[in-house]
Fold this sequence. Notes:
Blueprint: E1 6-16, E2 22-33, E3 38-42, H1 49-56, E4 64-69, E5 72-73, H2 78-87, E6 88-91, H3 95-98, H4 105-115, H5 122-132, H6 151-163, E7 169-173, H7 181-198, E8 201-206, H8 209-215, E9 218-223, E10 226-232, H9 233-238, H10 243-250, H11 284-287, H12 290-293, H13 297-302, E11 316-317, H14 320-326
Parallel strand pairs: 3-8, 3-9, 6-7, 7-8
Antiparallel strand pairs: 1-2, 1-4, 4-5, 9-10, 10-11
Helix pairs in contact: 4-5, 4-6, 5-6, 6-7
Pfam families: ABC_tran (PF00005), oligo_HPY (PF08352)
GO molecular function, one term: ATP binding
Protein name: ABC transporter ATP-binding protein
Amino acid sequence: MTEPVLSVRGLSVDFTVRGGRKARAVDGVDLDLQPGEVLALAGESGCGKTTLARTLLGLVKPSAGTVSHNGTPLAYNTGALKRYRRAVQLVLQDPTGALNPRHTVYEAVAEGLRIHGMVDNERERVASALSKCGLRPAERFFLTYPHELSGGQRQRVVIAGALVLEPSVIIADEPVASLDASVRGEILSLLLQLRDDFGLAALVVTHDLGLAWSIADRLAVMYLGRIVESGPVEQVLTAPSHPYTRALVSVLPDSPIAAPVVLAGEPPDVTQIPGGCRFHPRCQELASGPAAAAGVDGLCRGTALPVLSPDPATHSVACHLHAARVGQFTQTA
């Protein structure tokens, strides 16, 4: 297996909230992104996936743990961050907000080149990036303003602005959430084409498991700051093993789960993470008896689970009941 292009070990991110309390948005995450791989990071709002993505971009400094690019740990001085952000680029979910309405398409795409001092052959670089993103002939769009473009075209300009720096990783935060259904498929196809043509790796942050099925090679499901299940996307979505993942998958069309699972309550306050399995206050398997029948209900309430292994080939699950059913944990401490 090749060296990961992006790697995370023991990552935690804390924030101080009103009253001086500590909120742990990300709590011990190990993650690897392989060259040319599309990894979807899924979970409901507030689970920590956007904070994790911002930390991977170097926008948030972790409270603990490391982020490494091509095996080199990220340093947080200005020069190191500038070099890193050329290699790891962001694609935002709202192209209208991401583009300056006073800047032409040319200026929007060329901005990154100028920031990073890549001014040689600027015109050719901008034209090439726009063409790769399906805006052809590129010169026709140079003097166009964002309001003159469709939503799909604006998103292509945002992707071109990232691609022009020739990054090795793209982190896309809900890349099609603000687009009409008619153009979502086009943008997803573009991201896959860029992966195939240029070997780009991508981390796609989403709450839409249908999108993950369409685009991702691997899926990681987050709950309350931790990855609770990860593995090849087909395995996770056709045979979900964690009760939380099963609840998410149960409402998909043609779900392998016979009936929709309605979770009780809301995710706990991140300043008061429950002991034991952090999902246990809402777990349908604990509430309805299977955990007690397997003799793990006490573990669910009182014994913390290890951090999942980052092995991309393994279907890993952080669940005491699953561990009892398979006879061992499928994750490492």
